[in-house]
Design goal:
Elements (H helix, E strand, L loop, with lengths): L1 H11 L6 E6 L2 H16 L13 H12 L3 E6 L7 H20 L2
Parallel strand pairs: 1-2
Amino acid sequence: MELTGVIEAFKYIKTNNIHIEVYADSAYVVNGMNNWVKNWIKNNWRKSNKKPVENKELWMELYELVNNQASVTFLKVKGHSGDVGNEKADELVNQAMDELKSVTP
C-alpha cells in the first residue's frame, strides 16, 4: 500500500514542470527511489542478492511516473512524531478506512 499511495498521488499531478517533494514515513519507498531502483533496473530487476525485486510492477510504474516529472525529491519523515503533513495523512487514511467499514457488508 505504501507504493500504491505514492503512485496514486502522482497520477493526480496535472503538470510536469514543477519540483515535487514526496514526504513519506516509509523507508521502503524513500530508500527504493533514492538508493535502490537504478541498480534494480541495471540488474534486470534483481536485487544485489540476485533475487527478483518484490513488487516489481509497482516500482516500474512509480519509476515511470517520477521520470515524467521535471524534478522529484523523496524525503523520509518519522511517522507519528508530530510532523503536520504526516499526521494529516494518517488522519485522512483512518477516516477513509472508517468510511469503507461503514459501507462494506
